[in-house]
UniProtKB/TrEMBL annotation:
InterPro entries with a match to the protein in the record: DUF1731, Epimerase_deHydtase, NAD(P)-bd_dom_sf, SDR39U1
Biological source species: Catenulispora pinistramenti
Source lineage: Bacteria, Bacillati, Actinomycetota, Actinomycetes, Catenulisporales
Occurrences of domain DUF1731 (ranges): 246-290
Family (UniProt): Belongs to the NAD(P)-dependent epimerase/dehydratase family. SDR39U1 subfamily.
Name of this protein: TIGR01777 family oxidoreductase
Any single Pfam family the record assigns to this protein: DUF1731
Domain NAD-dependent epimerase/dehydratase, residue spans: 3-210
Length: 296
């Protein structure tokens, strides 16, 4: 297959590009500005521009493009920037997919779509939640509908992707190594997770899962409360999970962005499991051990 990937420079995007390339697919990277090689396609996601016909001849497009949630404190302008980066890019690519007759679009999203579910288990058929992050995912997914009825659309609701040099492991491991790791608040908020290797493999699997369309939870089948994640990460690093970080302390430092660390989704991969996807890492403790050992 000939596949274009937007957001290919990020940790997850890079892993997906490798997975697809190693599986024999021809992969093109969608890059901001002018293309600089035969394996690149230039576009301007900020202004919603892509050359006419740029996606012609492709079999699939994977859209992971977004502005990161972290960095600056959230205010109205920053939240609008975060929303626009996802919605404008998704709408632009979906329209180009439709106009170029690309038969498959895989559009990134997140399990935050469900809002804070506490200990209630949710699958792909559950409704959208409330709050900025849930509404952001709703709008992100809605923009991808511009691909039209002739395109098989997959809405990839990623959980927390575990990689040694990305995401929550990279952020929290230094604190644990310094004996400062622990839970966030009560730690009863659920963490839907998946290893980087399984996330990339799931995307490849879905390329040829012709009967699958619509939302897909890209998560391992065993979401755990954050306190259990902290304990498992501590064990993998040979450190205790001694401390508790109260919500007001982190909110004072990060503003509204901090709230996401104290909410969660007990999201399970009903669609992936029913389609026959086999997880390499289905248990949290073993997954963290594998991630830290492999450096993936």
């Amino acid at each position: 297959m000939k596949i274009a990937v937007a957001g290919a420079s990020g940790a997850l995007g890079s892993a997906i590009v490798r997975e697809l390339g190693d599986s024999g697919h021809t992969v093109f990277r969608l890059v901001r500005g002018e293309s600089r090689g035969l394996d690149e396609i230039g576009w301007d996601p900020s202004y919603g521009r892509i050359p006419a016909g740029a996606l012609s001849g492709l079999d699939a497009v994977v859209n992971l493009y977004s502005t990161g949630l972290a960095g600056k404190r959230w205010n109205a302008a920053q939240k609008q920037k975060i929303r626009d980066s996802r919605v404008i890019a998704a709408d632009t690519l979906a329209a180009a997919v439709r106009d170029c007759g690309v038969p498959l679009l895989l559009n990134g999203s997140e399990t935050a779509y469900y809002g804070d579910t506490q200990d209630r288990q949710v699958g792909e058929g559950d409704p959208v939640g409330t709050g900025f992050h849930a509404e952001l995912c709703r709008d992100w997914e809605a923009a991808a509908e511009a691909a039209g009825p002739d395109t098989r659309l997959l809405l990839l609701r990623f959980g927390t992707v575990l990689g040694r040099n990305s995401g929550v492991v990279k952020a929290q491991a230094p604190a644990f190594r310094a004996f400062l790791g622990g839970r966030l608040g009560r730690g009863d908020q659920y963490l839907p997770w998946i290893t980087m290797a399984d996330a990339a493999a799931a995307v490849r699997f879905l390329m040829t899962a012709d009967g699958v369309a619509g939302p897909v939870n890209v998560t391992a089948p065993d979401p755990r409360p954050q306190r259990e994640f902290a304990a498992a990460l501590g064990r993998a690093l040979g450190r205790p999970a001694l401390w508790t970080l109260p919500r007001p302390v982190l909110r004072a430092a990060l503003g509204e962005y901090a709230d996401g660390f104290y909410t969660g989704q007990r999201a399970v991969p009903e669609v992936l499991t029913a389609a026959g996807f086999e997880f390499r890492h289905a248990e949290l403790g073993a997954a963290l051990q594998a991630v830290l050992k492999a450096g993936s």
